Amino acid sequence: MISKIHSIVPYGFEGKLVEVEGDQNRGLPAFNIVGMANKTINEAKERVRSAIVNSGFSFPDKKVTINLAPAELLKDGAYLDLPIALAILTLSGQLIKNDTALKAFVGELSLNGEIKPLKGIINIVETAKIAGYNEIYVPIKNLAQASLVSGITIYGVETLQKLYLALKNQLSLPMPGANKDFRRIEIKEGEVILDHIRGQKLAKRAMEIAIAGHHNILISGPPGAGKTLLAKAAANLLPELTPSEMVEITKIYSLAGLSTDEIITERPFRNPHHTASATSIIGGGAIAAPGEISLAHKGILFLDEIPEFPRSVLEALRQPLEDKEISISRANRKTTYPADFMLVATMNPCPCGYLGDPAHECKCTETQIQNYKKKLSGPLFDRIDMNITVEKVSNEELRAPVLAKNHEHNVVKNTITGAILRQKTRYGWDGIYNSSLSSFQVSQKLKLEPSAEKLLNSASEKLNLSARSYFKTIKVAQTIADLDGSEIIKQSHLAEALTYRKR
Ligand SMILES: [Zn+2]
Fold this sequence. Notes:
This protein is of the alpha/beta class. Helix content is 38%, strand content 17%.
């Protein structure tokens, strides 16, 4: 007799169907798993045997063979423990075929029969739904994330024994709650908001524009000028996530193993150090895991002291900055992860940071300074929409009185919300910002008043703007117009946008 259980493993940003077939025959008792290439699944044998016995079931006293199909698919980790155990329970007559028909099962077993959560559960449930399964049984700790997929019946499983009872209609298993509790973004105690930063009026204005239009921004200035604080305050100005954005972000965090039981409800702020490996930033490694640029999807990727990052990492950022996704090649398989992040980067004026500081002497040589600036290559620099320089805050500004609590934050946040709504109305789509328009879309959708057009053309000649810079200036000007409540780009909007082009 042959038993067959349906399962799914994550495969890149999607999933693949797997069939777990069991067979037994006379001969010396043995337990073999065939049809896989990964050693980690061999460990499944011991877990499955112990889980079956410790849950009060009997393990067949025969030669048991489990075949995982398709054979050419490399199956990582412990995803198939549970289906293997069910195949064995069916072989030995403890379950019947009808108990598991048209259902899919995933889960890692512990030795005592408990079912442990898995990475990538959203991929798994989405694949089960597309394949037409009526029901999927997932580890109970994955239930919250699994519930993000609708259109398939999902059960949360705690132990092998409880699953058995449920399949025999003697127990009902938990299902996702009808009320998905999405938390709202609130200012957390201890987090940085605009009001905490004294002075820096121009820099705050630039951050407002950057957030409203999702523009990449580079902040230059000496150490201690508050560059990092500005970036953190900007993160708190990001708009709320839409439900579909929550699904995408949670899927990435689940695949990366950073969260298997929660729904991510806030925009990410990722802050990798310049010593982090290229793989951890871009993605890749043995299992082609998502990197920081994908973990920052729909949020901010903050690169502090960007010239300190290896050239190879900075060059690798160019493609995802353009395409909003990253393709990672691993053996003969290519995985594409979303990477639609807003880049906020900082740099010092020179390696020691004191160039131009009246109070400290800069010890760098001219060559060192040139090399430092050159690390940000032209093509990468061209992908940064806005450039600002911050100075140290004066003592006078430090002593200025503080307005009502969170006043500045609330005012700016409201203005940004209005500007984002304008973009949504203009483009008829959530999550499309001025910065994401193609040159063609800029020509089609954005309107400059004649004096703005004239200013742009003369500035373009004078500053020798590249085609990319030319369009980026219009996009930034449109965001300024949106913050101003204007549909058309006026001369003043364009003039302000040009101030953010300087290098
Ligand atoms: Zn220096």
